[in-house]
Amino acid sequence: MSAPAPVAPDRATPLLVADGLSRRFGDRWAVAGVNVRLAGGRSLLLAGHNGAGKTTLLHLLAGLLRPTAGTRALGASPAGRPARVGLLGHRGQHWLDLGALDHLRVDARLLGRRYVRADAEALLARVGLEGRGREPVRQFSAGMQKRLALARLLHLDPDVALFDEPYGKLDGDGVALMDGVLAELVAAGKAVVVASHLVEHVAVRLDAGLLLDRGEMRWVGAAADLPAALAEARR
């Protein structure tokens, strides 16, 4: 694909910019020539079949993978500091023998912040884990672990929030919780990127859409039009 247009172009100063972002594993290009420009208060939906490159792209945007080619850059937050990036992956990455409160305490130390237990308990209550903060995470269901991952992301307070299949393993209440959090993050001026197979559900909630096919940008446009583009690509 030659010179793909940037996704979600915006005149506002962007928080996240990818220019020709590419990653190769051996002879296979998992992501090839992706361009993204996303300002605060804007959101992007990534879609594509399994193996299309969505997770690899998120890891590149998060800075967890080094690109083979192209660049990824972060802007400044409204506070003037470099933008913070947070990724909610489809795997929890928790310490199974620690409780939820312990996770937030350790995270606060790693972030150089003061740990306030009352605030941590309020955050757990916000994600539906009220009263469960001292239980070892190995006793949590998959849905509860996803809720803890969400609490840890919110605790980071990222300027750029990346979500990889955020609705996986959540019940109906959890899906409603995730919907509300995504809306709150955008309203708070965060840049939000979501990769999800629930395209029709998410498309009406986000701004821009990007369809990946074998790592390339096959289609870009309004998120509301992405379900139709995905259906056409499957023919």
Strand tally is 9
> What does the main sheet amount to?
6 strands, mixed
Give the end-to-end Cα distance, rounded to a whole number of Å. Answer: 20 Å
Give me the strand/helix succession. EEEHEEHHHEHEHEEH
Kindly report the spatial arrangement of strands forming the biggest sheet: 5-6-7-3-8-9
Helix/strand/pairing category: alpha/beta
Fourth-tier CATH superfamily name of the largest domain: P-loop containing nucleotide triphosphate hydrolases
CATH architecture field of the largest domain = 3-Layer(aba) Sandwich
What percentage of the residues does DSSP assign to strands (E)? 25-35%
Helix content: 25-40%
For the CA atoms, what is the radius of gyration?
18 Å
> What's the assembly state of these chains?
single chain
CATH top-level class of the largest domain: Alpha Beta
Number of helices: 7
- Give start-end ranges of low-pLDDT stretches: none
Query: What is the CATH topology of the largest domain?
Result: Rossmann fold
How many domain units? 2
Summed over residues and divided by their number, the pLDDT gives a mean of: 94
Shape descriptor: globular
Verbal overview:
The protein has 235 residues and is α/β, with parallel strands linked by helices. The protein has 2 domains: 1-84 and 158-235, Rossmann fold (3-Layer(aba) Sandwich), CATH 3.40.50.300; 94-157. The chain has 7 helices and 9 strands. The chain has a 6-stranded mixed sheet, sandwiched between helices. Strands 2-1-4 form a 3-stranded antiparallel sheet, covered by helices on one side. Helix 5 links the parallel strand 6 (160-164) and strand 7 (191-195). Helix 2 crosses helix 3 (117-126), helix 2 (100-110) runs parallel beside helix 4 and helix 3 packs across helix 4 (142-156). The relative contact order is 0.20. The model has no long low-confidence stretch (mean pLDDT 94).
